Amino acid sequence: MQLGLIGYPLGHSLSPQIFEGFFQEAGIKGSYKLYPLENITVLRDWLKTQRNLSGFNVTIPHKKTIIPFLDSISPEAKAIGSVNTVKVTRTDNSLHLYGHNTDNFGFRTTLEEFLGGYLPKKALVLGTGGTSNTVAYVLEQLGIACVKVSRQVNNEAPLTYEDISNHTLKSYELIVNTTPLGMYPAIKTFPHIPYEALTPKHYLYDLVYNPVDTLFLQKGREFGANTCNGVAMLQLQARKSWEIWNRAD
Questions:
Q1: Could you say which of 10, 109, 135, 154 is the most buried, measured as most Cβ atoms within 10 Å of its Cβ?
Q2: 46 burial class (0-12, 13-18, 19+ CB within 10 angstroms)?
Q3: How large is the average pLDDT for residues 105-117?
Q4: Model's pTM, two decimal places?
Q5: What is the pLDDT, as a whole number, of residue 93?
Q6: What is the per-residue pLDDT for 103?
Q7: Phi/psi zone of residue 7: left (φ > 0), alpha (ψ -120 to 50 degrees), beta?
Q8: Angle at 209 between CA 128 and CA 46, to 5 degrees
Q9: Could you tell me if 148 and 159 are in contact, meaning their C-beta atoms sit under 8 angstroms apart?
Q10: What's the whole-number mean pLDDT along residues 20-40?
Q11: In whole angstroms, how far apart are CA 50 and each of 13, 88, 90, 210?
Q12: Catalytic positions, please?
């Protein structure tokens, strides 16, 4: 069984180790490889050269842009507007790509555990990529109002980082980083927010998982904020992907 991950760049991924564990656990011979794919428009031509590929995960920057190249998409992935898991089926000379979103399960499960039953009224979501869609979807399901933040105001993000003041943070107890800031190898980078305004009432969730302790989380803890990294979310969404690839549709 051949699986993999597409995105660009891919030096940060822990997925091969996770899926190696799944292969061993199930007694299945297989591999999970990294496929640095810079241009999503070549996807279907590239797949013609990967005849043994049964499925693949999708990461930055393709979670949104891959959708037009898929044959079908799960209702949840359609509602979210983001795909991170694709099942590949082949019949004769035809190729069918079915998109799913398993980030949703991973984020919701870990967020609820992180918050311990408490539901903040409002959240800031840093970033506007595919994963930010998933985060916003989950927060809406939980009844948490959220606002996206980007470097420039756009249709998705009404706030820029410059707009976030000490006063602003008083209203947003949950802050979720969906950007690659702080991710290996750029471990010295971090979202620019007024960390000095954070308190023990704040919850900082970083979807970055390599390194496990980013500057975003470290700076938050300096002022007493509760913190959570993206490792558990990665593991849970991977398990859901594994189930999709191994079930008979």
A1: 135
A2: middle
A3: 98
A4: 0.94
A5: 81
A6: 98
A7: left
A8: 70
A9: yes
A10: 97
A11: 20, 11, 11, 28
A12: 63
149, 174 contact by CB (below 8 A) = no
Question: Angle of helix 130-141 relative to helix 103-115, nearest 10 degrees?
Answer: 50
CA torsion angle 17 18 24 28 (round to 10):
-100
37 to each of 40, 66, 88, 195, how far by Cα in Å? 7, 11, 17, 35
Distance of alpha carbon 190 from alpha carbon 221, whole angstroms: 14
Q: Are 40 and 69 in contact (CB under 8 A)?
A: yes
User: How far apart, in Å, do the first and last CA atoms of the chain sit?
Assistant: 17
- Domains in the chain (CATH in brackets) are 2-100 (3.40.50.10860), 103-233 (3.40.50.720)
CA gap 171, 119 in Å, rounded: 13
Distance CA 192, CA 190 (A): 6
Q: Is the dihedral of CA 110, 116, 121, 126 positive or negative?
A: negative
233 three-class SS: helix
Judge whether 228 and 206 are in contact, CB under 8 Å: yes
Q: Quick one: how far is CA 71 from the chain centroid?
A: 22
Q: What is the CA radius of gyration of the chain?
A: 18
Eight-state DSSP code of residue 230: S
Average confidence (pLDDT) over 71-84:
98
* Cα–Cα distance for residue pair 212/218, rounded to 1 Å: 10
- Determine the Cα–Cα distance for residues 248 and 226; give it in Å rounded to an integer: 41
